[in-house]
Amino acid sequence: MAGTYQRAHSAFDRLLPRPLVPVAHKPLISYGLSWLSHAGVTDVTVCGNRETRALKAQLGRHVPADMTYSYREDPMPRGAAGCVRDAADGEACDTYVVTDGAAVPTAVELPELLESHRASGAEATVVVYSERGRSGTPGAVIPVGIYVMNRAALECIPPRGFFDIKEHLIPKLHRAGARVLAYRITRVVPRVLNARTYLAVNGMVTESLVSGNAVPWGYHRRGEALIQAGASVAADATLVGPVIIGQGADIRSRAVVIGPTSIGCDVVINDGALVSRSAVWRRSAIQAGATVDLCIIGDGAVIQANGSGPSERRRPDRTTGLPDGIRTWSRGHIARASLQDFD
């Protein structure tokens, strides 16, 4: 499911369709596609909305080689369940896996999920994360955006109109007496919902890559950093991991990069600049002496050392420990927003 609702006043949502935002140098949706491929799923339909054209233009080279894929764009809003029904029309499959294109679902063992679904006799399985309550007691149960459905469940979805999975399909199945299974997991499934969660997910995946024993193809390790071939890092630059640096990036003399941070392709971090806990996208430039902290730097942005922006002092939020403003900078302008503007 790659259709997302774009908030009118969200600087983050204006940068890219959410499934395409770069997470550790790969489009976010590619993690879900790889997860499906590793479990042997070879036929995938990407359901989008007005963002389908951008998905077609940018996603192809990130789809696993053994996967057959197509796109489905609904001219009118259909909701998640409606999109699933439309995508399944004409297909001969009996079982369908549905996942959120803005999630990293690797916490779920898909073969075990499918076996549990088949063994239970359920028409639909909802993957949920069980939070721990106080003193170890069970806490809230939260759907993570992953479902398994039989063909019979899809027949409960009307052919027209808006129809959601959680709000409409699951209650309808219950009323019909169909079995619905809650498949509980104990690890959270990271999902990108706004600027704050994007930085958290990008940092989590970057840290996982850097801390792993295997070095991804095309990268080499320098301390706590992974550096892609073709990138240049000055001998006196400081990298405090986890940091991942893309092809063609140029980290110049006395620059400091503090993780978790991802540096995209062809980025220039000039002499003495400081980048910390941020995501710097392609072809951006951080000018000499600039300070960037907890920022999303959009493609082609140029950050100066002087003037207002991430370098100014900000007071941490009392509840989250984060500064009360995550900044989103993009080409040609500076978009400033407080956290509530992204929620």
What does this structure look like?
The chain is built from seven helices and 25 strands. The two termini are 20 Å apart. The chain folds into two domains: 18-185, Spore Coat Polysaccharide Biosynthesis Protein SpsA, Chain A, CATH 3.90.550.10; 195-342, UDP N-Acetylglucosamine Acyltransferase, domain 1. By secondary structure, the chain is an alpha/beta fold. Helix 2 links the parallel strand 3 (43-48) and strand 4 (68-73). The strands form six sheets. An eight-stranded mixed β-sheet has the order 9-10-13-16-19-22-24-25, with helices on one face.
Itemize the secondary structure elements and their pairings.
Blueprint: E1 22-23, E2 26-27, H1 28-38, E3 43-48, H2 52-59, E4 68-73, H3 79-88, E5 95-99, H4 110-120, E6 124-132, E7 138-150, H5 151-154, H6 165-175, E8 180-185, H7 195-211, E9 219-222, E10 225-228, E11 232-233, E12 238-240, E13 243-245, E14 250-251, E15 256-258, E16 261-263, E17 268-269, E18 274-276, E19 279-280, E20 285-286, E21 291-293, E22 295-297, E23 302-303, E24 327-330, E25 333-335
